[in-house]
Specification:
The structure holds two protein chains of two kinds. Chain A is mainly beta. Helices cover 0% and strands 61% of the residues of chain A. In chain A, the strands form two sheets. In chain A, strands 2, 4, 5, 9, 10 and 11 form a six-stranded mixed sheet that branches. A five-stranded antiparallel sheet of chain A has the order 1-3-8-7-6, with no helix packed on it. The model of chain A has no long low-confidence stretch (mean pLDDT 91). The mean pLDDT of chain B is 91. Chain B is globular. By secondary structure, chain B is mostly beta strands. In chain B, strand 7 and strand 8 form a beta hairpin. In chain B, the strands form two sheets. In chain B, strands 2, 4, 5, 6, 9, 10 and 11 form a seven-stranded mixed sheet that branches. A four-stranded antiparallel sheet of chain B has the order 1-3-8-7, with no helix packed on it. Classes of the chains: A mainly beta, B mainly beta. Chains A and B meet through strand 4, strand 5, strand 9 and strand 10 of A and strand 4, strand 5, strand 9 and strand 10 of B.
Chain lengths: 110, 116
């Protein structure tokens, strides 16, 4: 069983739609990261959060520590949002190791 | 401000050979982590270096080794390559968690290793 589970694995949306990607984790964490990976491999850090909610432009990330769950929302989606979104947690238990979800592949159609 | 740089970008090796991948962290960062990402999968943690020492290690065999230099740059070495080692190898840098708590990860663009 993976320490980090994401859903859905694949997501196709029409431009302008509201998108939600979910992440559940099973370990105690010190922080959760949302990452964006474009074709070719480069990864960009979108958010790092340990409680509550953060917003950056059209992106919103929330975390519920008690439920061990986080969501990434994209409002007014755009084709340039097409990428793989990865949830990663830094464990507060096993030597502060990072665990990654397998990613959600998002395609936004014009 | 240079971000994380990795070299080479692509590499083709034969089974049984050895490979060295290189990473220069973002300016000001002192901690380097290495990850292996197989096609269609999320990154898997290999190990992390801080103060020139391996501080944490994921579930990878001893064929995977590394080094960090005084300028914080790092190398990943893989010996006796197997076909299954074909993957994208990502390097990420950050500030030492022990002093700064959690800080965002900054990733390089990766090295695509193909073992034939």
């Amino acid at each position: 069983k993976n320490e980090v589970e994401q859903s859905p694995q694949n997501l196709t949306a029409q431009e302008g739609e509201f998108i939600t990607i979910n992440c559940s984790y099973s370990v105690g964490i010190s922080a959760l990261h949302w990452l964006q990976q474009h074709p070719g491999g480069g990864i960009v850090s979108l958010f790092m959060l340990s409680s509550g909610k953060k917003k950056h432009g059209r992106l919103i990330a929330t975390i519920n520590i008690q439920e061990k769950h986080s969501s990434l929302h994209i409002t007014a989606s755009h084709p340039r949002d097409s990428a793989v979104y990865i949830c990663a947690v830094r464990s507060g238990q096993t030597g502060n190791q990072f665990y990654f979800g397998t990613g959600t592949s998002l395609t936004v159609i014009p | 401000d240079a971000g994380v740089t990795q070299s080479p970008t692509h590499l083709i090796k034969t089974r049984g050979q050895q490979v060295t991948l290189r990473c220069s962290p973002k300016s000001g960062h002192d901690t380097v982590s290495w990850y292996q990402q197989a096609l269609g999968q999320g990154p898997q943690f290999i190990f992390q270096y801080y103060e020139e020492e391996e501080r944490q290690r994921g579930n990878f065999p001893d064929r995977f080794s590394g080094h960090q230099f005084p300028n914080y740059s790092s190398e990943l070495n893989v010996n006796a390559l197997l076909l299954g080692d074909s993957a994208l190898y990502l390097c990420a840098s950050s500030l030492a968690a022990v002093f700064f708590g959690d800080s965002p990860l900054h990733f390089g663009n990766g090295t695509r290793l193909t073992v034939t």
